[in-house]
């Protein structure tokens, strides 16, 4: 994240804290009058995860059926939209806490690039000591538990995990030199700054770092002279564009026209979905996926930490959606990962909440951020994400 973005984040926090601390008392009314309820503030994004509310309802219904939720412990959810250029999610978080009196945050949905709302919201959650469950978060900065003491991630994917996977693959084939290709921008910069030290630790030298403009065309790449930098300095090329505007297909067309064939060069594409953009190229119908992969990634290497997001998991999940009247056309199938992460995030919170409630006998303990964090990081749940347990045990 750039310094200017960080300053904007914390300026937003400061302004909101000052303004909302002056809010009249008559506005501080709880959204729920029930005494057995944990009130969750969900911060989503306009246009992201259509019918997400029904996914949350499905998760809650299953929690009621298995006894995790009941007469002594239930959940209510208030949703707000964020993920805009003006850090609307930060304002939404302040509103949810001060006006609606939520005791937990779910989200924000966005977390990287121009829309890094998770960082300031997690900082506020730590100050207020309430749990925050980030179901789409990938930023390495969030692993700092000195700052984000009440945050749990269920995303399974982080920039660091994909960097470690990429470095391990390169080391396995005993390649010693690589070029890095990315684009200008905060999200891309964070990926590169995570990857470079991992490569160095594995004894891999970065010979060139090539950055293209976010609006670059095939012709721009050809005429920039930067492809020559790659050609004369390495045969292994690691390509990590941001998901703000994926330039992968553009780059592949440019290298093909420039005569950089797969027989001479190894192209490695580490894949990390951050928001709605940047979905894995393997997501979609079989024919669509096969055609896209063949056209863009023929004879290339894709490193995708999908963690088992295949038909064995997706098909049963879609069948569950059918039980509440949803089918594939009612959701964004390209972002099925987001739905499953959201489903599991609510289930994880409720399971931890039940554990804490049983220990303390006090429903307000479910809103104790540090207490809930300790409960969640050592917890086993049967979620839809096959390796969710590993992420929770890491306490990240």
Automatic annotation (TrEMBL):
InterPro entries found in the cross-reference section: ANF_lig-bd_rcpt, ANP_Clearance_Receptor, Peripla_BP_I
Residue stretches making up the Receptor ligand binding region domain: 62-383
Subcellular compartments: Membrane
Main location: membrane
A GO term for molecular function: signaling receptor activity
Keyword terms, alphabetized: Membrane, Signal, Transmembrane, Transmembrane helix
Organism superkingdom: Eukaryota
Residues in the signal sequence: 1-25
GO CC terms: membrane
GO BP, sorted A to Z: signal transduction
Pfam families, per database record: ANF_receptor
Protein name: ANF_receptor domain-containing protein
